[in-house]
Amino acid sequence: MAxxxxxxxxxxxxxxxxxxxxxxxxxxxxxxVAKTRQQLTMARMYFDxxxxxxxxxxxxxEINALQARYSYLFRKLREIxxxxxxxxxxxxYEKSP
Length: 97
Description:
The protein is mostly helical.
C-alpha cells in the first residue's frame, strides 16, 4: 500500500512537470504567433507601397509564407491548449510498465 502512495506521488510530480513544460511551450507559441502577426502586417503594408513587379511578386511570396507560418503556429497552439485542458481534467496518471 505504501508503494502505491509513493508511485502516485511520483506520477503526480511527473504530471505537474509535464503541465509546466506544456505551459512554457504555450507561452513561446503565443509570442511566435504575435511576432508572425506583426510581420504579416508589415509585409502587407510593404505590398501596398511597392510598384515594381518583381517587388510585388517578392511581397506576395513573403505574405504567403507568413500566412502559412501563422496557420501552423496557431494550429500548434490550439493543440497544446487542448492537451493542457485534457491533462488538467485527468486525475492520477499511472506509470507504464
